[in-house]
Amino acid sequence: MHPNNGERAAFIARIEWTVYPDRPPSLVFVESIGASGVGAPSAWPEANGYRYGSNDVCKPFTAEGQGLHPEWSSGPHSWRSTGNPFLYVVENVQDDIDRVAGRRAG
After folding, report:
1. The pTM is what?
2. How far is it, in rounded angstroms, from Cα 80 to Cα 22?
3. Contacts of 87 (CB under 8 A, 6+ apart)
4. Three-class DSSP labels, the chain
5. Which residues partner with 14 through β-bridges?
6. What pLDDT does 5 receive?
7. Cis ω for the linkage preceding 21 (within 30 of 0)
8. Residues β-bridged to residue 104
9. Cα(59)–Cα(11) distance, rounded to whole angstroms?
10. Cβ–Cβ under 8 Å, residues 102 and 92
11. What is d(CA 40, CA 58) in angstroms, rounded to the nearest whole number?
12. Is 3 exposed, middle or buried (0-12, 13-18, 19+ CB in 10 A)?
């Protein structure tokens, strides 16, 4: 994912669904395509909720966020499997990366 700030390097997000489209995906950042595990802090955006130390993204559109916040299972933060869930996740990640101008956590 390329930040709108053209001077910053792209991020590589690994988005994994256990049940598409009915459940939110797991989201982590890695250093290269095909990398196993979780990337170093330099692979993660410096955005709110993107927690490289915990290896998760605590946002309503992720499995990790929904798991940590049971109150998100209903209301405006609940997961919606209608439309294009992949696009929904990617657009949210892009917005978060752009909000911090592509800065990295480490």
Report:
1. 0.94
2. 8
3. none
4. CCCCCCCCCCCEEEEECCCCCCCCCEEEEECCCCCCCCCCHHHCECCCCEECCCCEECCCCCHHHHHHCHHHHCHHHCCCCCCCHHHHHHHHHHHHHHHCCCCECC
5. 28
6. 83
7. yes
8. 45
9. 18
10. no
11. 17
12. buried
The token pair that represents 82 in the structure block? 């209608």
The confidence band for 6, taking pLDDT boundaries of 50, 70 and 90, is: confident
Residue length of the chain? 106
Instruction: Tell me the per-residue pLDDT of 34-78, one tens digit each, with 9 for 90 and over.
Output: 998 899 999 999 999 999 999 999 999 999 999 999 999 999 999
Beta bridge partner(s), residue 6: none
Query: pLDDT by residue (tens digit) across 81-93?
Result: 999 999 999 999 9
